[in-house]
């Protein structure tokens, strides 16, 4: 009886390691270790016309700026309200519409701002990485890699990493990816010095629970923000300690 039980344990153990071994390669490729993420996985993408126009001034007058924004269209389209959101802060908006975390890594790697030493950096990235076949840990890895790159570029800055906000139909686009990705980012950044993860209030942003009702904080595409959303995001950042 004991011999039979021992044989059964051995068979189960072998099957377990066989399954893990077969799955391990794809899992490792999809969800790499954030501490090993490099620009080798970054993707080149042209900057927007707005950023290309702004960069010469940013470089020439970089010493006067003490804050930066990094991200995708959700950040780039913040531009008309930047002065209202941060009335005492000269802000560089380094975001580019359409950027994934990979694009942002590439952009940060090529950023030529040697005299820029911001006190604070706000990061909002990851919504363009959401998808049906994307694991939450893959999205989280990219966000953490971007934050880590920002930390390497500007070690004296305090980084405020905003959670990926709701979007899409009923403001519930790939919630099974977005929500756990935000949780993974929060736990990963908790031990990183000089970084504050800001979990935005999803229901305040989308005007309540997931619903077919239109929310005035969003444009009709249910992705990009109107002024009301930026006011909310500013309040979340202020509550987290960012000086406006």
From TrEMBL:
SUPFAM superfamilies: SGNH hydrolase (SSF52266). One of its GO terms (molecular function) is hydrolase activity, acting on ester bonds. InterPro entries: SGNH_hydro, SGNH_hydro_sf. It holds the Pfam family Lipase_GDSL_2. The keyword Signal applies. Gene3D superfamilies: SGNH hydrolase. It comes from the Bacteria. Residues 71-232 form the SGNH hydrolase-type esterase domain. The keyword Signal applies. Residues 1-28 form the signal peptide. Keywords: Signal. This is Lipase. It comes from Rhizobium sophorae.
């Amino acid at each position: 009886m004991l011999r039979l039980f021992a044989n059964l344990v051995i068979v189960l153990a072998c099957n377990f390691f066989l399954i893990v071994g077969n799955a391990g390669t794809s899992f490792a490729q999809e969800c790499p270790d954030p501490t090993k993420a490099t620009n080798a996985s970054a993707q080149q993408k042209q900057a927007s016309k707005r950023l290309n126009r702004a960069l010469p001034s940013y470089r020439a007058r970089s010493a006067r700026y003490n804050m930066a924004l990094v991200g995708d269209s959700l950040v780039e389209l913040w531009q008309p309200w930047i002065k209202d959101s941060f009335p005492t802060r000269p802000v560089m908006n380094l975001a580019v519409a359409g950027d994934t975390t990979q694009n942002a890594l590439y952009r940060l790697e090529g950023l030529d701002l040697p005299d820029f030493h911001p006190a604070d950096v706000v990061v909002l990235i990851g919504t363009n990485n959401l998808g049906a076949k994307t694991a939450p840990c893959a999205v989280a890895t990219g966000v953490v890699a971007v934050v880590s790159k920002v930390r390497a570029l500007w070690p004296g800055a305090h980084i405020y990493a905003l959670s990926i906000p709701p979007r899409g139909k009923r403001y519930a686009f790939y919630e099974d990816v977005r929500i756990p990705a935000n949780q993974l980012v929060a736990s990963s950044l908790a031990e990183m010095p000089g970084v504050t993860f800001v979990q935005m209030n999803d229901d305040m942003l989308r005007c309540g629970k997931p619903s077919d009702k239109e929310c005035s904080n969003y444009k009709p595409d249910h992705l990009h923000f109107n002024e009301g959303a930026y006011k909310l995001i500013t309040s979340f950042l202020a509550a987290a300690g960012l000086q406006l």
